[in-house]
Amino acid sequence: MAKIDLVDYDGLLMSPSASYDKFKEATSYEPREGDVFVSSYHKCETKRNTKETVLKVAKFLGDSYFNDLNSNEEQMQKLLEYTSFDYMQKLPFVMPKTIDVARKIGFNVGKNIELVNTGDYVNIQFFKSGKTSYTKENYSEQQKAIMKQMIKDHFAQFPHLISIWKQFNVFL
Fold it and tell me: What is the pTM of this model?
């Protein structure tokens, strides 16, 4: 098993809303017997030295990956550019307009602008506004509408769940 996880331990522990459950979730990825490779990097460390972190991951993937990346500065710069949040935020991100389309065509959610032109997919805002929390207040109106429709589509056969979600004002 291989798991590479970027956990903001510092932000988690310093947060006024930090709880034992959040800490337990974040630290549940500690290496266990049988794990081949588990690595957690502090996000702040990764932001400070992204290139070094990428090289650590490349080294894990094998010497050929590491050597190719380490010896080719142009390739490294492209990788750093294409994996930056600024770059990814500007890419088109699409999802099926309806659950029926998703079932028929497949759940092709991702950065594929050609799908938008089929009329069955819609371009969406993928990234949240930059605030970290689990509350719906931080989602755009478009994201809220998508989530509301997904809940209705996926849980139509469970009206008792929908009534509970309405009671607690969860997207519905």
Answer: 0.40
